[in-house]
From TrEMBL, chain A:
InterPro entries: ATPase_ArsA/GET3, CobQ/CobB/MinD/ParA_Nub-bd_dom, P-loop_NTPase. Residues 22-57 form the CobQ/CobB/MinD/ParA nucleotide binding domain. Gene3D superfamilies: P-loop containing nucleotide triphosphate hydrolases. This is ATPase. It comes from the Bacteria. It holds the Pfam family CbiA. GO terms for molecular function: ATP binding; ATP hydrolysis activity. Transmembrane segments: none annotated.
Automatic annotation (TrEMBL), chain B:
It holds the Pfam family ArsA_ATPase. InterPro entries: ArsA/GET3_ATPase-like, ATPase_ArsA/GET3, P-loop_NTPase. This is ATPase. Gene3D superfamilies: P-loop containing nucleotide triphosphate hydrolases.
Length: 348, 382
């Protein structure tokens, strides 16, 4: 595995190797936000990064406060120092028609297939076809070199890569192994032929040194459990694991002694009341009793979070943390998150 | 912030009503659908219903919270404390097995063997998207027909969109009955589609080139074996779909107070209205209501203003932390109220109940019972 496993690396050092970052996580953990922050962080030293969204939810557009994005690589963030983040809202149907046209020159056939229901079949029903079309878009962007667009074979093979990195906002942990294991997914439908060849090419990139699968978790039991299960599955497929990104981390507000007391029996009511009295609240005793419940809930939560964190540490992957941002995530908040990632060193 | 007026979803009235025969829990991933379904099933059982909970979730979370080692395709009894008024069973859907059983039930043994061995069938029954939803519907129909339970609680499959539970079975049925599969499986010589236009000749050769002849052969024998057994996939899907529109069915839309989950809930509520499907109401999990009493009157700015001098003097760390916590909590609650009000204002009359976030996850029956109690108790309105 990569040398980046054993500690922080200078920015950009690891990027030469890992160029496809697949970001997964349990639903509700903030996958899209973390993927966008990672893309932004990877662009921070002047790189050109593509963020690919594959779930059709227009989550990136929502995050950036823009109208729904079309099926094209569009520059959405520019970073001081020359870095850029382009965004592609990948769409299986558009990818299929594009694929047919590119390789067979068959736009008319695409239309006929559409009328017959074949496009609907390939993009919503057939196992794996949809996934291979979507992963295919991302891996094509990874292989693409500067020069003539789209067809990697057209550009000289020593030309620099078009994108320094590609970040994929991937399906949730429950579906990630199947999503990435495109070869076996399409095997039931196509044992030979162009689909199979395409799947093989996609798989080659996904299996390569260039790819890392990152997991987004929260300091809660179920997301952590799914992270553990997902890591085992991805490892079982022989794919390379990246970081565990712990999202929405809240700072503890109490010192150790107060935390322990509050979690065990509840906070020291007299001390609480004395402080509230100094802050000139009326009836500080009653207010202290009312706030004690909130303090205890916080202390129990912190205790649970620590247990979950140590479980996550045992997975042996680099653990990076992102703070909970009150008021949700927008462009400005994304900058904060990207900076936090950069500070901790994007370790691959 | 004053909460918008809304009616409470009366969970006890819902599960106590003998007319309620099916409760479908749906919503975005990660909102606690499985837990909600299990808690509803348990509450119903302890209040006298003969309840069964179907989960389709491969993470086996329901199994964990019910203390079962594993769930298979048959409903297993969940041991309730002595003196429980009703009974509870739980099962985890095995889509392939359900599909196989349908085949075995409808086909003569020799035919059934042919179908089960067909490679196309094997792909269809294990990895077509939509099969899980189709089979969840199928299983629901079977359990309903068996009459062994008077209440079935369904936890919908994890999918890209909550709407998939409603749409995927019909989509799959449409494909299996549709032009494409007839076209692909028609003997090459008939040219049944030649009249449809010149593009189709190109299509034939394209599909042949892309998927290969072997698949077309498998498909051909699958279609001929299957047709004689039970034509009408679409009809089958529509039959269970109709079941969902009967008065005995109640949809419970589950969400958490974040933008994505609430938007997904909103789509689903809209869709149920369009399809005239019975919505019982909305469950919003993991909310952060403010405690009653004097703390409720302390706003977030006031709390921060009071915490700051304490922090500067460093004299009362516990009190300043409590005030910071409270301020954060008030702001969280204001955000939750905004999200909820936005949903209620676009869907007037939707009944709703909140379940406050728990410090720890639910692992056992006691925890599920607690959720059931929270669902049934007075709404935290602050």
């Amino acid at each position: 595995m990569s040398e980046g496993e054993h500690g922080p690396q200078p920015p950009g050092g690891a990027r030469a190797k890992a160029r496809l970052h697949i970001v997964t996580g349990k639903g509700g953990t903030g996958k899209t936000t973390v993927a966008a922050a990672l893309a932004r962080a990877l662009a921070s030293d002047g790189g050109r990064v593509l963020l690919v969204e594959v779930e059709g939810r227009q989550g990136v557009a929502t995050l950036l406060g823009s109208p729904p994005l079309p099926y094209e690589e569009r520059e959405m963030l520019s970073v001081p120092g020359g870095g850029t983040v382009c965004v592609l809202a990948a769409d299986a149907e558009a990818a299929l028609l594009e694929y047919l046209e590119m390789f067979y020159g068959m736009r008319r056939a695409g239309q006929a297939l559409n009328r017959l229901g074949a496009v609907d079949f390939a993009t919503t029903i057939a196992p794996g076809l949809r996934d291979v079309l979507l992963t295919g878009k991302a891996t094509e962007a990874v292989r693409r070199r500067r020069g003539r667009r789209r067809r990697p074979s057209d550009a000289p093979s020593d030309a620099p890569f078009h994108y320094d990195a590609v970040v994929m906002d991937a399906p949730p942990t429950g579906r990630i192994a199947r999503f990435l294991n495109v070869n076996s997914e399409v095997a039931g439908l196509a044992r030979v032929g162009p689909i199979r060849n395409h799947a093989d090419r996609v798989m080659e990139v996904i299996r390569s040194e260039q790819t890392r699968v990152h997991f987004v978790s929260l300091l809660e039991e179920m997301p952590a459990q799914e992270t553990r299960d997902g890591i085992a599955e991805i490892h079982g497929l022989g794919l390379r694991l990246g970081m565990v990104l712990v999202n929405m981390v809240r700072p503890p507000l109490l010192d150790e002694a107060d935390l322990a007391a509050a979690a065990d029996g509840g906070p020291d009511l007299d001390a609480l009341a004395a402080g509230l009295k100094e802050a000139r609240f009326e009836a500080p005793g009653e207010l202290a009793a009312a706030l004690a419940g909130e303090v205890r809930a916080h202390a129990l939560r912190v205790r649970l979070e620590r247990r979950v964190r140590s479980d996550l540490e045992e997975l042996g992957r680099p653990l990076l943390e992102l703070p909970l941002l009150e008021g949700g995530v927008d462009r400005a908040a994304l900058e904060v998150l990207a900076r936090r990632l950069a500070e901790q060193g994007v370790r691959l | 912030m004053t909460p918008a007026a809304h009616e409470r979803l009366d969970v006890d009235a819902l599960v106590d009503d003998p007319g309620t025969r099916i409760i479908v829990c749906c919503g975005a991933g990660g909102v606690g659908k499985t837990t909600t379904a299990a808690a509803l099933g348990l509450r119903a059982a302890e209040r006298g219903r003969q309840a069964v909970v179907i989960t389709v979730d491969p993470a086996r979370r329901l199994a964990q919270s019910l203390g079962l080692e594993s769930l298979d395709n048959t409903p297993r009894p969940v041991p309730l404390p002595e003196g429980a008024a009703g009974s509870m069973h739980a099962m985890m859907l095995d889509m392939k097995r359900t599909f196989d059983e349908v085949v075995e039930q409808h086909a003569a043994p020799e035919r059934a063997r042919q179908i089960l061995a067909n490679p196309f069938y094997q792909t269809l029954s294990t990895s077509f998207s939509g099969t899980q939803e189709y089979m969840a519907m199928e299983k629901l129909g079977q359990l309903r027909q068996s009459g062994d339970w008077d209440l079935i609680v369904v936890d919908t499959p994890p999918s890209r969109s909550a709407l998939d539970f409603l749409d995927a079975p019909k989509r799959l049925g449409r494909f299996l009955d549709g032009r494409l599969i007839r076209f692909l499986s028609a003997p090459a010589s008939t040219g049944a589609f030649r009249l449809l236009g010149a593009g189709f000749n190109l299509v034939t050769s394209t599909i042949g080139r892309i998927v290969g002849a072997q698949l077309l052969d498998d498909l051909r024998s699958f279609v001929s074996a299957f047709d004689t057994v039970f034509g009408g996939f679409q009809e089958r899907a529509e039959r269970t779909y109709r079941l969902l529109r009967t008065p005995g069915t109640a949809f419970v839309v589950v969400a958490v107070p974040d933008t994505d989950a609430m938007r997904e809930a909103s789509y689903f509520v809209e869709r149920l209205a369009t399809d005239a499907m019975p919505l019982a109401g909305l469950v919003v999990n993991r909310t952060h209501p403010l405690p009653g009493g004097p703390a409720a009157d302390v706003g977030s700015r006031e709390a921060v203003a009071a915490a700051e001098p304490l922090e500067r003097s460093g004299s009362h760390p516990l009190a300043s932390a409590a005030l910071r916590l409270h301020a954060e909590r008030v702001r969280t609650r204001e955000r939750e109220n905004r999200l909820r009000d936005a949903l209620l204002s676009s869907h007037g009359g939707v009944r709703m109940v909140e379940v406050a976030a728990l410090p720890e996850d639910v692992h056992d029956l006691a925890g599920l019972r607690g959720i059931g109690e929270a669902l049934a108790s007075a709404p935290p309105d602050r």
